[in-house]
Amino acid sequence: MDITTGATIPTPSLTTSSRCRLVLLPYPLQGHINPMLQLASILHSKGFSITILHTCFNAPDPTNHPHFNFMPIPGVAEENLPVSGTDNLIRLMRYLNDEGLGPIQGCLEQLLSEDAGVASLITDAQWFAVQTIADGLELPRIVNWTTSVSAFLSFSAVPLLRQMGYFRGLSDGIYNSLKQSYLIKSHL
């Protein structure tokens, strides 16, 4: 039931073999993976077939979710990556959104060619470059913002704080990477 209107939300009445498949692409950090898996569980309970497309780095454990299909993205983040510190997190975001595009597109093309196809792609907001793939494959994409409102406000405050001199140690290259992210582009 839609809590704003009180209307009943239809759910697919499909057999297991003909369920509508959704592909979810979580960002490979725990604060992003867990909310995406929770969303996947809710969608699965509504009758959708779920495929989790994931990096090998910090991959979810398929044995904890036997009702989902898991597909690793080959050649992307297969080793442990340093993720502490602002510089490393921004480098991780740039790496995944640059190096991951080709392999992600290959995985999606494979899934689209299968009988079940793909009804929609649901990604974490940190996968900002994936929109070009979705557009090229004519695949609807839903962006799931898995972080808190305070994180969103923090991203939107970066340009003002930098102008005020609070990010003297933040190099222009890292700042420009943040600017290119749609997370703060609309606020500049």
In short:
The protein is α/β, with parallel strands linked by helices.
How does this model look, in words?
The chain has 188 residues and is α/β, with parallel strands linked by helices. Helices cover 41% and strands 13% of the residues. The chain contains seven helices and five strands. Strands 3-2-1-4-5 form a five-stranded parallel beta sheet, sandwiched between helices. Helix 1 links the parallel strand 1 and strand 2. The radius of gyration is 18 Å and the shape is globular.
N-to-C order of helices and strands? EHEEHHEHEHHH
Main beta sheet strand tally, sense and closure: 5 strands, parallel
Strand-residue fraction? 5-15%
What is the mean pLDDT? 78
Q: What is the CA-atom radius of gyration, in angstroms?
A: 18 Å
Total number of strands: 5
In whole angstroms, the N-to-C terminal distance is 38 Å
Q: What structural class do the secondary elements suggest? A: alpha/beta
Anisotropy-based shape: globular
Low-confidence stretches: 9-17, 182-188
Helical content, roughly?
40-55%
Q: Largest beta sheet: what is the strand line-up?
A: 3-2-1-4-5
Number of helices: 7
Which helices and strands occur, and which strands form pairs?
Elements: E1 21-25, H1 30-45, E2 49-54, E3 69-72, H2 86-99, H3 101-113, E4 120-124, H4 130-136, E5 141-144, H5 149-163, H6 172-180, H7 182-185
Any key phrases for this structure?
single chain; 188 residues; alpha/beta; five-stranded parallel β-sheet; 13% strand; disordered C terminus
